[in-house]
Fold each of these.
Amino acid sequence: MVLELPIELELKKLGLKEKEVKVYLAGLELGPSPIKNIAEKVKIPRPTVYEIVKKLEEKGLFVETKRGKKRLFVAQSPSQILRFLRIKKREIEEKEREFTRIVSILEAKYSREKEGIRIFQGKEGKKAFIEILSLSSTPEILIVNPELNPIGQRERKKIYQSIKKRLGQIKVKKTNIPGLSGSLIIFDKIAFFPSKSSKIILLF
């Protein structure tokens, strides 16, 4: 006989974190409630519960309402979990398409007879790369794992302004690929920034 897993474990399988599961189930049990009541039910500090509820709102599992001057939070029907799963599925499919595009670009670059690789290192190397990126011949730029990229947001903003001034437009897209140990910037060339390294590997 196969034993049924507790509902908490089943909800975790759907991508909810442990505290999110507790708060969601408490919300279903309590009905429309202020944060204070939910926090007391799950024995989690009120500010933390508020943050969790806001995240669950983004997933369509909670909504905020008012009763007089009171702010109440309502856990949505479990049927909303199916909607959440469909959204996650679409996000995964979009990531897969983006990754497939990146792989195709990389394969095309590597298959060229006259492929070139240039490595930049240190502050001077970074400065030289920024000059090359600023002279991009395409206004479309894709950044993979931007949080791992050593070129900060302020620096990137200046680069984008330079490209826009020269080409008249700029279109920047960001995505994340879990498992990629570094960051990529794809423009008319491909730049790879390995994690824990000051190197920039440029393919052209």
Amino acid sequence: MDNQDCIGLVIEVPNIGRGQIRYIGSVETKKGTFVGINLFAGNGKNDGTFRGRRYFETSFPQSGLFIQWEKIANLIPIPSNPEANMTIPPASPTPVRINANFLGYHEPLQNSFPEIKSRTSISNVIQPNDDPMQTTSSDLKMLQTELVQYKRLVEDQRIVFEEIQAAIDEYETKLDTTEKEKVLLQNQLDHERTSHQRQKQFYESEHDQLLTVIDELQSEINRNAAILAEIMQKEKKNSLENDYVMQDEPNSDALLINDLREQILELQQHKTQAELHRVQWEKEKEQLQFRNQSLSKNYKNLTTEMTEYQQKSHDTETKEYTLNKELDDARKKIGELESRVEELSKKQEENTLIVDSNIETLPLYNPGAEVKSTLVNAAAGRSLWCALCEKDGHESVDCPYDDKFF
């Protein structure tokens, strides 16, 4: 068998694991023929690139491995049908994790599924041909492979759905917290508004009363001033004529003047206090207005944040609904594939019975079993042994001989 015919075969590398041959040929700056293997477990040493040149594609960034042809030549089986061992490598040995930031997930589930074979292929499976057992067996393997891929994709979607569900729960928790804060601030704002309204009414009433008192005091001052001026004028006018009267009653008008002066001073003090109360009321009014504006601004910000959380929650629910629908469709397709596999299994059993009844059963030649029986695990019974350089002290993955294994 030609070396290039081995590309695509799945082999088991001792102490490393299973992988698929992706490249056979020379490697720059290296002597000899090397085999590029894509390891299913992702425990390789490169991504199919060596010294800036890409030789083959890998499933993971560190799943590529170059090994000399002589080291794995005896590991390659020689099948009677070259396509028998051409297996499709799993897309991922472990479910692929996607960030809990599910907002970046846009690829629908239907686009991730491989295309199902056409109706012509299925009809060819059902129609009899020269070798019904072989056709049924190959179609059964094909459907089983598709079924495994569907199950893997459904498992990946389930993991994505669980991570999205955790994000949804987090958003719901934040939304509930925001709702509680909004209700608390709304109650606080209503309480402040009610208190502000009561204080405003109280200060307005007190202000009106003070204005009334000031007006009354001003009227009283004006009236007393007019009386005092009239008395002074009369006193000045009649000072010469009524000297004897003033001499008889010197203290009468003096007492009246003193009383009027005391009343004027008292009214002026009341006026000063009223002015002080008015200034204090203006300051408290400005403070209440400032607090009202601050509460209104906080309420507006919380309303905006709550609207954003509600929008995000709505988007999350929409994506969750889409994922549920896609998962249901995938489960239906899996059910259909399982039904087809069961039908093909029954068909294969019927064909087997028919062949057994018509021809004599002979022992089948199993080249894979013979090759496998000739393979000897050289690492058996040793703790640390490299199957590539055939030396003790290290395993194959950590082989330091870069010329033969890198």
